[in-house]
Design a protein that fits this description.
heterodimer; A: 470 residues; mainly alpha; 0% strand; B: 348 residues; 49% helix; globular
């Protein structure tokens, strides 16, 4: 079910009606769990089985690990949990990719081997919920947390519908304790949740879908050498589209959870105002970055084993981060580029001392944003030839002259992205909540009304969120 | 961290302002004569397609392009034939993917009325071609639609049945009322060549029964439509080699024969219908798809009962406001006469 659909609004109203009815807390949690399964099953009922298997395996593994002090037994349970979750990912997400590369490898060494392309459905949000449940078992294994006391609480942690299919990736310590005692949103929380839901939908429907997506689609689907204005236009459009799409989803998720009185963490903090790439990854998809840091980068040794090993760890983390997004080499290239950026930044940080102020800060943020745009070309292109052609056009290297964007799209993309960058810069040290607190009540009402009006007249056809495919 | 900052009075103001703005928006577009009607999209088409699974040998399914949509009126058909047909024709498409789908993926063994608009019917097959891809996507949607899709379609019916401003299709009409299309009209200069503006000139109901709108009463609007037709019916430049054109013609006829024979083998019947066209449109069709090379061989190869507008006075007595479709009043009489003729011929 998509947040940006009328069906979801009806679904949410029904859930809220039950949630705020005079019902015992345990029954409310059962209702939320059932609603979460329904939310998922409305897309593809049989794939709920994967959620159930993940839930039961991780619940059992964590309990058993906690009960025994035998390190080997604990490790066996951890390995079982990792194998199940990573096995699902390997089969459903990377099966086709692995087979394709296996065939390529055999053909390269002269063996004539062909296989039919596997017809595997990618379960929506599999990368999110498997990472979420894995963090739970790893934390229990490390002794950082105790297993959940109630199966219902744990099952709800794995399946909680606001963040089930596209995050934020929540840690068990952030969510399970909130299920312990009855929760209801205060009036102010409920209103703020509804405001965030509207803001998130506005980001997704108006900014991403109405204003930016068609320019990105036209440019990346053109299949020709483009005029630099178009090549940059398409790249900037995608840069804005993916931010508004994904940040919009996270904002909706946080808002919906808050309407239930549940707090889930932020996932974005004005990433296009980042100064450097360490800063970017503290602002973009924060819950994935921190997951990769805690469960991959630090276990690999982090920065504790000398500069060379640090660079290797950074690169490995970013390559796998790229692969997390999709089963294609272009995603690996995207991650690899970010790894290179991080290495260069780390190298320069040791050599150059720079005091950041407002003037050089915005220039460095703009430089970072420009470099990020280059990585988005690989993320969006899906094929290296397209990416190379796009970069050639953007940097005037291939004499591309074809125009595909109408004046409307050129105007919208460049104006929207300029405003996006400036707003991110102005907001980089604050939050929507703090900014909103400074606004008069009537201005908030007016802004909310404008968003509601535009959302209705947009007549969204319910485009999927980009991150659902990851 | 600050307290949650939006007070209740902001909510009330937002709801009041949004309500007033939407009411004004609705009143404005009703004033412009926009009608309350469902969207002709893949969801509505899939709902009709699902009906086929419950049809019997006495039932009729209508396939074709926009001419079948405009020219066949469901109430008149039902009044004359006694059963309401299912409308699966779709504008700007070839009906072949639907014919293939019904034959291969359903047990339907009633009657299929297959509308032939030569430039569309004899267009290249495959999803890389627009006329094929558009309907092929709808067919795929029918087979892959999720419960969420069905639920959304169900709940969208109420607002679509209440508000005229809910007017957005998968087409590229320049006067649709969705935000994107409205904004596009604000920036006029063209940076790259584009097709002439194509206005909406129809609306439909839940059974996908189409009514012509404005083109029959507004000559300026009809002129916009004919300007658009003049643009789109230009032969491709460069023309494909004659051998390729001939190969395509034979392939389409062969594909039709294969499907129709399969359908007949399980007791089904197919009736071919060539609805009228006029003026520049007809001249272009006669030039690019002459009857003796396209329609006649198709009829002969398939062995289907066939109705070409040139052969029947009752099909050829109307003036088409925009060269390609009947206005709804004429379409009603056209439908009645066509069904009567089919009954008289014993094919229905």
């Amino acid at each position: 079910m998509l947040f940006n659909s009328l069906g979801f609004i009806v679904f949410l109203i029904v859930v809220l009606a039950f949630y705020y009815s005079p019902m015992q807390w345990t029954n409310k949690k059962r209702m939320l769990l059932l609603a979460s399964y329904l939310f998922y099953a409305m897309w593809n009922p049989p794939l709920i089985l994967l959620l159930w298997i993940s839930t039961v395996v991780d619940w059992t593994a964590a309990k058993r690990m906690f009960r025994t002090s035998d390190p080997k037994a604990r490790k066996r349970w951890l390995i079982l949990s990792l194998c199940v979750n990573l096995g699902f990912l390997a089969f459903f997400k990377y099966g086709g990719f692995l087979l394709e590369n296996f065939i390529w490898l055999l053909n390269t060494v002269g063996l004539d081997f062909q296989a039919a392309a596997p017809d595997i459905i990618l379960p929506m949000g599999i990368s999110f919920y498997t990472f979420q449940t894995m963090s739970y078992t790893i934390d229990v294994y490390r002794g950082k947390t105790e297993p959940a006391g109630k199966f219902l609480d744990f099952a709800l942690f794995v399946t909680f519908f606001p963040q089930l299919v596209a995050g934020p990736i929540v840690r068990s310590t952030q969510l399970i304790p909130q299920f312990a005692a009855p929760k209801r949103a205060t009036q102010r929380q409920f209103i703020w949740g509804a405001f965030l839901l509207t803001l998130g939908l506005f980001q997704k429907v108006i900014m991403a879908d109405v204003l930016l997506s068609s320019a990105a689609d036209a440019v990346f689907g053109a299949g020709s050498l483009l005029h630099p204005v178009d090549a940059w236009g398409g790249t900037l459009a995608f840069s804005g589209q993916i931010f508004f799409d994904f940040a919009g989803y996270s904002t909706c998720a946080i808002g919906i959870a808050l309407m239930l009185g549940i707090i889930i963490p932020d996932n974005f903090r004005y990433p296009y105002a980042a100064i450097g790439f360490s800063d970017l990854w503290r602002r973009w998809h924060i819950t994935l970055s921190s997951w990769l840091r805690d469960y991959l980068y630090i276990p690999l040794g982090g920065n504790r084993r000398g500069p060379v090993r640090t660079y290797v760890n950074l690169t490995l983390t970013m390559l796998l981060g790229g692969l997390w997004h999709g089963a294609a080499w272009t995603f690996v290239a995207w991650g690899g580029l970010h790894g290179i950026y991080l290495m260069i930044e780390r190298f320069l940080r040791g050599k150059v001392r720079l005091r950041i102020n407002a003037w050089n800060g915005i220039l460095l943020a703009f430089l970072t944003f420009t470099c990020v745009n280059i990585t988005w070309v690989f993320f969006r292109a899906r094929e290296f030839d397209t990416a190379i052609d796009m970069l050639g056009s953007m940097f005037l290297l291939n004499g591309g002259v074809e125009k595909v964007l109408q004046s409307f799209d050129v105007l919208v993309v460049y104006v929207v992205i300029a405003i996006l960058f400036v707003v991110h810069w102005l907001m980089r040290n604050t939050s929507v909540r703090e900014a909103t607190a400074r606004a008069p009540w009537w201005l908030l009402g007016l802004a909310w009304a404008v968003m509601l009006f535009l959302l209705v007249i947009a007549q969204s056809s319910g485009e999927q969120f980009i991150y659902f495919q990851f | 961290m600050v307290e949650y900052p939006v007070p209740l009075r902001s909510v009330l103001l937002a709801l009041a302002l949004a309500f007033v703005a939407l009411a004004a928006w609705e009143i404005h577009w009703r004033g412009e004569d926009y009608r309350v009607a469902p969207e002709d999209d893949k969801h509505l088409w899939a709902e009709q397609r699902a009906k086929v699974e419950r049809l019997g040998p006495e039932d009729v399914v209508l396939l074709g392009s926009s001419r079948i949509l405009f020219d066949i009126q469901l109430d008149e058909w039902e009044a004359e034939a006694g059963r309401r047909p299912v409308m699966l024709a779709a504008a700007g498409t070839t009906p072949l993917p639907v014919l293939i789908d019904l034959v291969e993926n359903s047990a339907f063994n009633g009657t299929i009325v297959l509308g032939i608009t030569p430039p569309l019917y004899f267009s290249p097959p495959g999803d890389e071609h627009y006329f094929w891809r558009r309907i092929s996507n709808w067919v795929k949607h029918y087979h892959t639609r999720t419960y969420a899709d069905r639920f959304n379609h169900l709940v969208a019916k109420a607002p679509q049945g209440a508000f005229a401003f809910l007017n957005a299709t998968e087409e590229t009409f320049f006067d649709e009322l969705d935000l994107r299309t409205r904004l596009e009209t604000l920036v006029a200069p063209r940076r790259v060549p584009a097709q002439p503006p194509f206005p909406i000139f129809q609306y439909l109901d839940q059974d996908r029964n189409v009514t012509m709108w404005r083109a029959d009463t507004d000559t300026a609007l009809a002129r916009m439509v004919t300007d658009f037709w003049s643009f789109v019916i230009q032969p491709p430049d460069p023309m494909p080699p004659p051998e390729a054109i001939e190969e395509l013609r034979q392939a389409i006829i062969g594909m039709s024969v294969e499907q129709i024979e399969k359908f007949r083998a399980r007791g089904g019947k197919v009736i071919l219908v060539r609805c009228p066209s006029q003026d520049v449109f007809r001249a272009a069709e006669n030039g690019g798809f002459p009857r003796e090379k396209y329609w006649d061989p198709l009829v002969e190869a398939t062995g289907c009962p066939a109705y070409h507008f040139e052969d029947y006075d009752f099909m050829n007595q109307y003036t088409l406001p925009e060269w390609s479709h009947l206005n709804s009043q004429d379409a009603k009489q056209f439908t009645t006469d066509l069904v009567r003729q089919m009954k008289e011929d014993g094919v229905l």
